[in-house]
Amino acid sequence: MRVGGLRHFPILRTEKDDTMTYENPPSATGWSAPTLTVVIPTFNERYNIAPLIEKLEIALAGISFEAIIVDDDSPDGTAELAKSLAAAKPHVRCIHRVGRRGLSSACIEGMSASAADFVSVIDADHQHDESILPQMLAAARDGADIVVGSRYTGEGSSTEGFSAGRQKGSEIATRLSGILTGKALSDPMSGFFLLRRSLFNDIVPRLSREGFKILLDIIVTANRRKSGKVEIAEIPYTFRPRFAGESKMSALVVAQFLGLIVSQISRGILPTSFLLFSLVGASGVLVHLSVLTFAFEALSFNFANAQLLATLVAMTTNYLLNNELTYADKKLRGRRFWTGLLSFYAVCSFGTLANVSVASVLFESQYANFLLAGIAGATMSVVFNYAVTRIFTWR
Ligand SMILES: Nc1nc2c(ncn2[C@@H]2O[C@H](COP(=O)(O)OP(=O)(O)O)[C@@H](O)[C@H]2O)c(=O)[nH]1
Ligand SMILES: [Mg+2]
What we know:
Elements: E1 2-3, E2 6-7, E3 11-13, E4 20-22, E5 36-42, H1 46-59, E6 65-71, H2 78-88, E7 92-96, H3 103-112, E8 118-121, H4 133-141, E9 146-150, H5 164-181, E10 193-196, H6 197-203, H7 214-223, E11 232-236, H8 251-265, H9 272-298, H10 303-326, H11 334-364, H12 370-392
Parallel strand pairs: 5-6, 5-8, 6-7, 9-11
Antiparallel strand pairs: 1-2, 3-4, 8-10, 9-10
Helix pairs in contact: 1-2, 8-9, 9-10, 10-11, 11-12
The structure holds guanosine-5'-diphosphate and magnesium ion.
Main location: membrane
Family: Belongs to the glycosyltransferase 2 family.
GO molecular function, one term: dolichyl-phosphate beta-D-mannosyltransferase activity
């Protein structure tokens, strides 16, 4: 039906007026809803995506699928290239995120954009073997809630794509996460997995958006549902070397991973960013004491001036570290870097007031213990600074 150049698709109304479903457009011949969405998170993967899409088309021949590339505004122009692919191929889409960074949040956003029955995530660098996707889909159709492409079980081998150091690190991380999932999963750190979209929809509000290891988070969160533990299937494959470009693995990723583990053990009461913020705070104490000693002893400052200098230096290093590490995903740059620094100074000054007042009250109470009072005061200011800088500094 055409009305003034606009095509109207019939809307089916069910009993309740607020639930509507849409019929397939009658003229869209050849179009079929995808069964599987393949999410491809990218950062600087310009030379990897077109050949990966071709490999997916071969691997998934006969299965209706769509690929959603989620790019965080890569400087190498991955998003532009992805959009030119999308313009040529109906089964390719691109989510171009500006001003945001992060692998987990990119995967979540891609899966959230899916309308297919099954969703999967695969790295853009060809390290994951796309040819096992049909097997993964079959396992999910057979009843598995989550299917993991695994680098370690059976014939799967990871030695080819990993350096010796990364191999060891990956093994330690696998053991650590085994404590959390409670299951002898051979590769909980895999970034290659598939799950039913209904399960994803169910748990997405409780997923952490920080860090690199989304699968671990999905498994732990899914297991905590009232309906009981999820069934996980593993399909082995040979981990390949990167096709083009460079890895984004860094010290930051490792710190965020450790943060995720503690955050999960505390059942989300302690978010990863809070743990990193506290860690940075602890490093600030060391900076403070070093500058204080140096200014007081070596430069013969009077105590008040030495203390003032130490406070300023420690606040500044804390700000820089938090901007790089804790809030790498919303890093402040340019003018916002400087206004952020000023607001950080202001918040920390109030935090110090809170610290000193709480500690003094405790110290003067009948349970006086200077160490306990000191720790309570410091905790108070970390919590205060964390909560308030999230509102005023890293919004
Ligand atoms: N959207 C998005 N993708 C990312 C980000 N960091 C890494 N990726 C992608 O995640 C995948 C895995 O990253 P990679 O650097 O290969 O990690 P490695 O295999 O552990 O060395 C690749 O497709 C990256 O392009 C990010 O911050 N945002
Ligand atoms: Mg990789």
